[in-house]
């Protein structure tokens, strides 16, 4: 297949679209496999094991903790791939690692999340399947030996495929990939991501009998005065998303600092806490959409929904904060449905002639809390539309989602995903801007013509060389071209006519030996970062070795680096237009 692409020299866009079909197909299969694993895990932990021990009611308290025992080896050997939500790691890979995701991420994340969710962990399937799909996209990209922007696009294709297949929502999958994973929208990446999302959805529909993730009644807005109530819902949803974000990341810090056991055993403590909650409110266990449907249909009294809202925040914080593997999208939908259900009942009691049905607020609340938490209102709006297939839900969704997102942004500077990275000291915003320079190295742009002089060169010869040569820097080296120091003409200007230094001062006396340099394989992004804290127009390129020698092989100039940056930016703009 790789030979076919090379033989026919396909255009970049054609190549990406063809490969996007492969990623979408594999992403759809991965989603199906993950669904089956979660269902199998639930059957094992909640059907087979209880039957073996006589099905005592108190057993539900221990099942999440028992499942976490199986999770411990995965966290011990593969902590990065097995813990928490996989979306932040995917965002980091796209922004800072050129889209490279370890191949083992696919199997590790799938198994860890299936164990967590199958044993009743309070989390969602969507986050893991997004990373699973992204890892498939990265693996396919590595197989075809692509790099740079192509690799990022394929990771985005995989993420969109995973979400589209698990939710049966192809448009939401596309928007999530663009808004959250890639953090940008351009036509070059849009088409392949759409193709992957469509293919994955088709595969999912062909294999999974249930079709849509939610079975919802048709929604109709009763009066456009309700928009005011939906605005209030948006404010409440924004506050709820902030509470969830702070609770989740606060719980992570709590376990990191004060847990009495090692990291790989911590999910057992979290599982025990979730089990206790689940004994009284089993609706918070696992990732079943039944409680959400019940909230929308009005099957719960408002007091129950208040309890479920609070306990879902606490339960999910325990599951993911302790190191369990799962996503936050489903919990956000759960919280939004219960929050909307409560407020819908309140609004209906206050203005029964204006408010049509509390269930509509539960539906819109799902999108509002989700959009606010992940700071992706377009994804949330389109997901709500795809789940209902009703255009009448758009206006309430737009109102609540935008307001909720603004409230969250006002109260917190980061989404629930980016906050996880910030807590680790990782800034992906700079990485997205610098992504253009991460695909090129100093070797690609360095100038091999370097002004080298011996350290024993007299002062007058150094000055004559400066006046004769066009450059402003001379590099002192030994007989093997190992870098010893750098002389800047700027530093010697005041001594240019001082003849008293002849015979007294040599090049080694003028050189600055504390030299900042780059290596041939260092990225231009790293080189630009070094230019930011030194006052030099060029940097030496040094082939460093383990024995301490630094052979000077070239120089890289600030002007050349910025020229390359502008050229790559122009290429991106031309691709987008």
Describe the structure.
The protein has helices spanning 2-8, 12-52, 59-77, 79-82, 87-96, 104-118, 126-143, 149-167, 170-182, 187-207, 226-258, 266-280, 290-297, 302-321, 329-350, 358-374, 377-388, 394-411, 416-422, 428-434, 442-445, 459-468, 489-492, 507-510, 524-531, 558-576, and strands at residues 452-454, 473-477, 483-488, 538-544, 550-557. Helix 22 links the parallel strand 1 (452-454) and strand 2. By secondary structure, it is mainly α. It has three domains: 2-213, Clc chloride channel (Orthogonal Bundle), CATH 1.10.3080.10; 226-425, Clc chloride channel; 440-574, CBS-domain (Roll).
**DSSP strand count:** 5
- What share of the residues lie within helices? 55-70%
Radius of gyration: 29 Å
Low-confidence stretches: none
Mean pLDDT: 86
Q: Give the overall form.
A: elongated
Q: At the third CATH level, what is the topology name of the largest domain?
A: Clc chloride channel
What's the level 1 CATH class of the largest domain?
Mainly Alpha
Number of domains: 3
Strand content: 5-15%
Largest sheet: 3 strands, mixed
Distance between the termini: 30 Å
CATH architecture name of the largest domain: Orthogonal Bundle
Query: Strand sequence of the main sheet, in spatial order?
Result: 1-2-3
Classification by helices and strands: mainly alpha
Helices, by number, come to 26
**CATH H-tier superfamily of the largest domain:** Clc chloride channel
Keywords for this entry:
577 residues, mainly alpha, Clc chloride channel, CBS-domain, 3-stranded mixed β-sheet, two-stranded antiparallel sheet, 5 strands, 65% helix
């Amino acid at each position: 297949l790789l030979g076919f692409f090379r033989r026919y020299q396909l255009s970049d866009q054609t190549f990406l679209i063809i490969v996007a079909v492969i990623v979408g197909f594999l992403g759809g299969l991965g989603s199906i496999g993950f669904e089956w694993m979660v269902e199998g895990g639930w059957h094992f932990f909640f059907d087979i094991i209880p039957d073996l021990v006589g099905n005592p009611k108190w057993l539900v308290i221990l099942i999440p903790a028992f499942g976490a025992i199986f999770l411990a080896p995965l966290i011990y050997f593969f902590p990065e791939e097995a813990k928490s939500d996989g979306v932040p790691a995917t965002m980091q890979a796209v922004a800072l690692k050129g889209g490279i995701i370890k191949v083992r991420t696919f199997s590790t994340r799938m198994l860890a999340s299936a164990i967590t969710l199958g044993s009743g962990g309070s989390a969602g399937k969507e986050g893991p399947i997004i990373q699973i799909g992204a890892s498939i996209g990265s693996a396919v990209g590595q197989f075809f030996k692509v790099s740079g922007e192509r690799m990022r696009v394929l990771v985005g294709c995989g993420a969109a495929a995973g979400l589209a297949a698990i939710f049966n929502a192809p448009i939401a999958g596309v928007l999530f990939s663009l808004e959250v994973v890639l953090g940008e929208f351009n036509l070059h990446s849009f088409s392949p991501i759409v193709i992957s999302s469509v293919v994955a959805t088709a595969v999912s529909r062909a294999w999974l009998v249930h079709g849509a993730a939610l079975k919802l009644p048709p929604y109709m807005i009763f009066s456009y005065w309700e928009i005011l109530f939906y605005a209030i819902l948006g404010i409440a949803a924004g506050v709820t998303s902030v509470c969830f974000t702070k609770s989740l990341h606060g719980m992570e810090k709590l376990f990191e600092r004060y847990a009495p056991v090692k990291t790989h055993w911590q999910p057992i403590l979290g599982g025990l806490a979730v089990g206790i909650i689940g004994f009284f409110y089993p609706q918070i266990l696992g990732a079943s959409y039944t409680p959400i449907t019940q909230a929308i249909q009005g099957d719960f009294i408002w007091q129950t929904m208040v309890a479920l809202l609070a306990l879902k925040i606490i339960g999910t914080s325990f599951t993911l904060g302790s190191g369990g593997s799962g996503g936050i999208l489903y919990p956000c939908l759960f919280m939004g449905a219960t929050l909307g259900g409560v407020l819908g009942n309140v609004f209906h009691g206050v203005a029964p002639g204006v408010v049509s049905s509390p269930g509509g607020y539960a539906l819109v609340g799902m999108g509002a809390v989700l959009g606010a938490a992940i700071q992706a209102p377009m994804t949330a709006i389109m997901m709500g539309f795809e789940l209902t297939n009703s255009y009448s839900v758009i206006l309430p969704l737009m109102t609540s989602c935008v307001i909720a997102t603004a409230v969250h942004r006002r109260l917190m500077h980061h989404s629930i995903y980016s906050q996880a990275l910030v807590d680790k000291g990782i800034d992906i915003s700079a990485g997205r801007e610098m992504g253009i320079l991460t695909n090129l190295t100093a070797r690609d742009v360095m100038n091999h013509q370097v002004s080298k002089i011996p350290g024993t060169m007299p002062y007058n010869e150094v000055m004559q060389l400066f006046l004769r040569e066009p450059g402003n820097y001379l590099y002192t080296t030994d007989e093997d071209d190992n870098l010893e120091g750098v002389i800047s003409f700027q530093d010697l200007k005041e001594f240019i006519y001082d003849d008293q230094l002849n015979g007294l001062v040599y090049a080694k006396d003028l050189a600055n030996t504390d030299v900042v340099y780059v290596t041939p394989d260092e990225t231009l992004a790293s080189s630009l970062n070094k230019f930011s804290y030194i006052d030099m127009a060029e940097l030496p390129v040094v082939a460093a070795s383990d024995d301490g020698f630094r052979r000077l092989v070239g120089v890289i100039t600030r002007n050349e680096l910025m020229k390359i940056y502008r050229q790559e930016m122009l290429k991106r703009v031309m691709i987008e237009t």
